[in-house]
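Subject: for your reference before the review

Hello V.,

The reviewers asked for a structural picture of the protein, and I figured it would be easier to keep everything in one thread rather than splitting it across files. Below is the amino acid sequence we used in the manuscript, unchanged from the supplementary table.
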Amino acid sequence: MLTDTYGRVATDLRVSLTDRCNLRCTYCMPEEGLQWLAKPDLLTDDEIVRMVGIAVHELGVTDVRFTGGEPLLRPGLVGIVERCAALEPRPRLSLTTNGIGLRRTADALRAAGLDRVNVSLDTLRPEVFHTLTRRDRHHDVVAGLAAAADAGLTPVKINTVLMRGVNDDEAPDLLAWAVERGYELRFIEQMPLDAQHGWQRTDMVTADEILDRLRTRFTLTTEGETVRGSAPAERWLVDGGPATVGVIGSVTRPFCRACDRTRLTADGQVRNCLFAREESDLRGPLRSGADDERMAELWRAAMWGKKAGSGLDDPAFLQPDRPMSAIGG
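And here is what came back from the structure prediction:
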């Protein structure tokens, strides 16, 4: 298994398929000038499937999430999903996407074996969407959400980042809209993973602020006696349920003690923490002929050195050199 010195076991694999994206969200990427990974540096479809197979067969991974950049830009995505769904034991397969391409791909992804999706949507207002993403694609995201639900990629979850002075007044409206359509909304604190390194703690809308704004319209109660465990989101029943809302307080309410994640970047690097400043190369050994046992050994070594926490509470915290688009969510 993928254990570390603190006794945590990683069973959740995040696989970045590309660092490219068709949006330019202000909290993630600059409008222009970001250098993309060269195609020869990217893992091939066969290499990705082999690495997922090693994680499942040799290392005890049970959940695989495909991320980006924007994973729907990966030409071989449907085939990758289909081949990973054929693994034994079969992992649970999910996708984090901006939703723009879901209207045309949701049915094919479901048929290939994808179980569910998380779609990023930060606003209900098209003009604010343009401000945040620098693109006029709001209608495509909304249509993509509907297509995912129709295809059975459920529960359809929405990831929302509130930006102070931009969309932070929309929290109750977003929740009402999601509940009406049967989507599960999760608010995420803005994290220091932007390519510009412009993140400021004082600008971040905190989990407590998000909850305060939601409570101006809704009654929120905790979900019985359930324990959060390794789940990143703290969840509340909305007006007594059954609808729920989640808040991921990665900065102010970290879940590092129970973290169960390992990450593989699009160019074959293992990251044992989203905020790690070091990576372990698996692409080199993979292309040099290392067998599955050796690859698993290297992966275990990469995870063994995982730190106790993200370090976000340390005044000396430094952002990773790579932005979120190159790390994978």
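For the response letter, the relevant points are probably these. The chain is about 30% helix and 15% strand. The first helix runs from residue 45 to 59.

Happy to draft the paragraph if you're swamped.

O.
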